[in-house]
Design goal:
Elements lengths: L2 H10 L10 E4 L8 H8 L3 E6 L8 H7 L4 H8 L11 E3 L1 H9 L9 H14 L2 E5 L3 H7 L5 E4 L5 H10 L18 H9 L6 E4 L2 H9 L7 E3 L19 E6 L8 H11 L4 E6 L15 E5 L3 H10 L2 E4 L8 H8 L4 E4 L14 E4 L4 H13 L1 H15 L4 H12 L8
Parallel strand pairs: 1-2, 1-4, 2-3, 4-5, 5-6, 6-7, 8-9, 8-11, 9-10, 11-12, 12-13
Length: about 425
């Protein structure tokens, strides 16, 4: 039986036409700053949010105890809480969290824990399931009669795999990520099928939606709801440094295309210029690209990251295949133009020459040309800062929440 036939068989099992009054949402980490769960709660539709760890900082006792932590640990803990999401509506899976601490890179082996817990709640209350990709499979299969909506956080696995297979630049670089090329066949097949288990697949970008369509998901079962940004926190401010400054922000992985940016930067040998790289990852094989006018910043907390956006002339996201990096909207909200690729969902918000540019993916020459133009027209980048901010103002998290609830309320997205 073909892969698509197997997927359709799973998707067809147990569907009915129930219309749940509320939803269970499930994901790992502080995905999208908990905005999907907050949207459901604001609409009176959240039965439960299931995640790995949620900090109950709305408890005065817990809040007082957290003040005893070192500042950096406290800041990380605070990111696992949102004042608009009561901890009474959140279930934490400490079993999942323990696995994540001991063997983070093997997450497909224990991702089912979150999905199964969400399914238990959904079956108990007759709720629908709003699940983020990678934990959705177990949730959907364990509650076959529930209304099932998937938020696809990455392009379809086949698109990411093809992009990684086609990449020949710096072949010695092993970024130590457990990506689509390292997944065993059963894991790859599982996430290949995941979108076809859902009644509706929501993506943040047109690019990711197109990868789902290419995999065989019917168009009427897809929708785009762009991400948002905290417009009160990410704001313009501060003075630019004397040197021309380009910022890369994100995971230091092959998929994010960091090696293309480093190669383009080395090729240009710009004077009075600095490339700043913010993010975590293994870059041992890229060590020869760092030093000089390339500075590795490591993983930054919110305030230092905002400062980096504000001070940069340009944020560069040279992704090989990417959904919609939140850093794109964060940079634009700080008034910083964005240079990205046509295989990155951030291209949806780029108006060429107005708030940034797009170039073809996996193309050092095109990336070099765009960087050189920006270097030689620094005043134009200053003039673009207002347009960048105005773009971001159309993508608040409140707009995301309203769009999500409006989409979920449409009758045509009931189970088939």
């Amino acid at each position: 039986m073909s892969e698509l036939a197997i997927c359709d068989l799973h998707a067809a099992r147990g569907r009915d036409h129930s219309h749940p009054r509320d939803w269970v949402t499930v994901f790992a980490g502080a995905r999208d700053s908990y905005q999907a769960a907050i949207a459901l709660h604001e609409a009176g539709l959240l039965r439960q949010c299931v995640t790995d760890v949620y900090a109950p900082l709305d408890s005065s006792l817990f809040r007082m105890a957290s003040r005893l932590l070192p500042s950096r640990a406290r800041a990380k803990w605070e990111r696992r809480f949102h004042p608009s999401l009561p901890s009474s509506l959140v279930q934490s899976s400490w079993r999942y969290a323990a696995h994540a601490q001991l063997r983070a890179e093997m997450w497909p082996d224990y991702s089912y824990l979150l999905g199964e817990r969400a399914a238990q709640v959904a079956k108990r209350y007759g709720s629908g399931i709003l699940a983020y990709s990678h934990v959705a499979t177990s949730a959907f299969q364990s509650a076959p009669h529930a209304r099932k909506v998937l938020i696809q956080v990455q392009p379809h696995p086949s698109a990411v795999r093809d992009a990684l297979l086609a990449d020949r630049l710096v072949p010695e670089w092993d970024d130590h990520t457990y990506n689509e090329l390292q997944w065993p066949k059963h894991v790859f097949d599982r996430y290949m099928c995941e979108p076809r288990l859902a009644d509706l697949c929501i993506t943040a970008s047109d690019y990711t939606r197109l990868t789902l369509l290419a995999s065989g998901v019917p168009p009427e079962r897809t929708a785009v709801v762009p991400y948002g940004v905290d417009l009160e926190f990410f704001t313009p401010g501060g003075e630019r440094p004397h040197d021309f400054t380009v910022l890369f922000a994100g995971q230091l992985t092959r998929q994010k295309g960091l090696h293309y940016l480093l190669s383009a930067w080395k090729k240009l040998s710009l004077r009075n210029a600095e490339l700043r790289v913010a993010g975590a990852g293994n870059v041992e094989a890229l060590a020869g690209y760092f030093g000089g006018n390339v500075r590795q910043l490591g993983q930054l907390l919110w305030n230092p990251m905002r400062d980096e956006y504000r001070h940069a002339d340009l944020v560069c996201l040279p992704s090989l295949s990417d959904n919609f990096p939140l850093v794109a909207l964060q940079a634009l909200a700080c008034g910083t133009p964005v240079l990205t690729t046509t295989c990155c969902g951030a291209a949806d918000v780029i108006e060429e020459g107005q708030n940034g540019w797009t170039v073809p993916a996996v193309n050092v020459d095109a990336l070099s040309a765009a960087l050189l133009w920006a270097y030689e027209h620094r005043d134009c980048l200053v003039a673009m800062r207002g347009a960048a901010r105005r773009t971001a103002e159309g993508f608040s998290w409140s707009v995301f929440r309203q769009s999500l609830i409006a989409l979920l309320s449409r009758s045509q997205y009931r189970p088939r």
